[in-house]
Design a protein that fits this description.
Layout (H helix, E strand, L loop, with lengths): L3 E6 L3 H12 L1 H8 L3 E7 L3 H8 L4 E3 L2 H5 L6 E4 L7 H10 L3 E4 L2 H18 L3 E2 L10 H8 L5 E7 L2 H13 L3 H10 L8 H4 L2 H15 L9 E2 L7 H9 L2 E13 L4 E13 L11 E8 L3 E8 L3 H18 L30 E11 L4 H11 L4 E6 L8 E8 L2 E2 H12 L4 E10 L4
Parallel strand pairs: 1-2, 1-4, 2-3, 4-5, 5-6, 8-10, 10-17
Antiparallel strand pairs: 7-9, 7-11, 9-10, 11-12, 13-15, 13-16, 13-17, 14-15
The structure holds NADPH dihydro-nicotinamide-adenine-dinucleotide phosphate (NDP) and L-homoserine.
The site of L-homoserine has 11 residues, from helix 8.
Length: 440
């Protein structure tokens, strides 16, 4: 059979992984795909960079649209990142009847509904395994392996950069800034690393997984997002005293009971019992826990970023698309796991509706009655205390830290209680509030 012809936009970290693996594992890939997969054109604004990657036998163009419109290309690979020109490039390629493989979660979280609709209308596929959790085939698991299940929840460490930073800070005492710099040097971070550290990248990924899990349209605006930039080393240490590790988690949950029906979609630093496997996922590694009603909890683990791990996912998509390229579009796996005319309209729940356990850290003056005031306020808002610790009073400031672990409480009640606690004269600093997930 004649080779499948590929055009790649971008010559960066991910594109390099794709090109290098395609060269190194050409035989294995052909045996799996049933035909050769051949890169025939790449775009680059720096010709020398592209030549160093693909040599002289591959066409190199300056204008990405030449890749999108190339008459011989069957599948385009979008590895530029960002919203534009990536969106125009992908839509142009679809309009020209090309299948698309992309690693761009930002693009799909913001514009995926429009892009998948355009692809469906044109009868082409947009594949995006590399967009979520780097080298871990979790999109495949959600779309295919778990398709018998009602998915109950997903919780994942889905940003390699922040997990790398948290690990280096905890294990090696690195500063946040140093750890981020190394993550950038290793090619893990986004072009704008605030997407990583402020939780936006994880929110893009959990938004895509939420749509796949629950059969709803992609709704990035519904995500509540909190990153790790304000996380204090003191809270990492106190959490450990209670037997917990702090990880940046993306969480999506279907809540369906007598009083609430909807989907939670959130990213925030989270306390996880240190006995859980996922609490021990370190460095750039990612892990995604998926709870299905039939299968129970399943865990997917692997490198969440980096050139070849991400290239591995891109090529898996290339092979998948190659295998189905001649299939009737109706018989391909739907983009969002559910048939496009079967997407449901389920409300997205606000953060105030979340019910979980909470970690609170207060800085208080050493005054009689302060603990009584705090516990009275918590009790008034239906929040019961599971455990508490108080540090020794600092001689200089006459302040101590009070750390409280609550039982399951409602976020809106906790927020009201926190405002009242902050207003107490004896509370001198802010109140740190972190969520706890048992993930049992
Ligand atoms: N790095 C990683 O570990 C992972 C990255 N991803 C995603 O993969 C995508 C690419 O990431 P990565 O490879 O790290 O990014 P890089 O910055 O390393 O590479 C991006 C490439 O895209 C090209 N490019 C960027 N902007 C433009 C533009 N305006 N016009 C034309 N070409 C452009 C550049 O090519 P040139 O300079 O040659 O023109 C550059 O080589 C992103 O969506 C990212 O989120 C997903 C999973 C993991
Ligand atoms: N910046 C992302 C790349 C992989 O999506 C991360 O660190 O996880």
């Amino acid at each position: 059979m004649k080779p499948i012809k590929i055009g790649i936009a971008g010559t960066g970290v991910v594109a390099s992984g794709v090109v290098n693996i395609l060269k190194r594992n050409a035989d294995e890939i052909t045996r799996r795909a049933g035909r050769d997969i051949e890169v025939i054109v790449v775009s680059s604004r720096t010709r020398a960079k592209a030549e160093a990657l693909v040599g002289n036998d591959v066409q190199i163009v300056n204008d990405i649209m030449e890749v999108a419109r190339h008459p011989d290309v069957d599948i385009v690979v979008e590895t530029m990142g960002g919203y534009e020109p990536a969106k125009s490039f992908v839509l142009e390629a679809i309009a020209h009847g090309k299948h698309v493989v992309t690693a761009n979660k930002a693009l799909l979280a913001e514009h995926g509904n429009e892009i998948f609709k355009a692809a469906q209308d044109k009868g082409v596929t947009v594949a995006f395994e590399a967009a979520v959790a780097g080298g871990i085939p979790v999109i495949k698991a959600l779309r295919e392996g778990l398709s018998a299940n009602r998915i109950e929840w997903i919780a994942g460490i889905i940003n390699g950069t922040t997990n790398f930073i948290l690990t280096q800070m905890r294990e090696k005492g690195w500063t946040f800034a140093d750890a981020l710099k190394v993550a950038q040097e290793l090619g893990y971070a986004e072009a704008d690393p605030t997407f990583d550290v402020e939780g936006v990248d994880a929110a893009h990924k959990i938004t895509l997984m939420s749509a796949l899990a629950f059969g709803v349209p992609i709704d990035f605006k519904a995500a509540s997002i909190e990153g790790i930039s304000k996380l204090a080393a003191a809270d990492i240490a106190y959490a450990e005293k209670f037997g917990y590790r702090i990880k940046l988690l993306g969480i999506t949950k279907r809540v369906s009971n007598g009083t609430t029906d909807g989907i939670e979609l959130r990213v925030h630093p989270t306390l996880i019992p240190e006995s859980r496997l996922i609490a021990n996922v370190n460095g750039v590694m990612n892990a995604v826990l998926v709870k299905g009603d039939a299968v129970g909890a399943t865990l997917y683990y692997g490198a969440g970023a980096g050139s070849e791990p991400t290239g591995s996912s891109v090529i898996a998509d290339l092979i998948d698309v190659t295998r189905t390229i001649t299939a009737d579009p109706e018989h391909r796996v739907p983009h969002l796991a559910f048939q496009p005319d079967s997407l449901a309209s389920i409300p997205m729940l606000p953060l105030s509706a979340v019910k979980t356990r909470y970690y609170l850290r207060l800085t208080a003056q050493d005054r009689t009655g302060v603990l009584a005031d705090i516990t009275r306020i918590l009790a008034n808002h239906d929040i019961s205390v599971d455990a508490m610790l108080q540090t020794e009073v600092d001689d200089a400031t006459k302040e101590a830290h009070i750390v409280i672990m609550t039982h399951v409480s409602q976020e809106s009640n906790v927020d009201t209680a926190v405002s009242e606690i902050k207003a107490l004269a004896s509370i001198t600093g802010g109140v740190v509030k972190l969520r706890v997930e048992e993930l049992g």
